[in-house]
Amino acid sequence: MKMNEAFEGIDPLIHSPNRLGVMACLASVDSATYQSLKEELGLSYSSLSKSISSLEESGMVNVSKRFIGKKATTDLFLTRQGKKAYFSYLACLDRIVMGFSPSEK
């Protein structure tokens, strides 16, 4: 695969540092709470909320709200589509990291 083809596979939605952080965290667990992601990524509520909204609108992340007693909790997890997109993104990065290999003519 040529380098330009590998770069074409980079999903700009995932490529944002905040959204990539959310995807990476969620790819390593079954689900995570909003608060745990906020603390792990060191993001403000508004930055995290924006990132999650973009990922949810694209169908990559599912958001579920529930109550524990009287306290509301927001759980997040990657959808099948989100997992597929994330691992495809990582595969593109792997190809890019392998670097350029000129063909001899």
From TrEMBL:
Annotated ranges, domain Winged helix DNA-binding: 19-97
InterPro entries: WH-like_DNA-bd_sf (IPR036388), WH_DNA-bd_dom (IPR027395), WH_DNA-bd_sf (IPR036390)
Protein name: Winged helix DNA-binding domain-containing protein
Organism of provenance: Corynebacterium rouxii
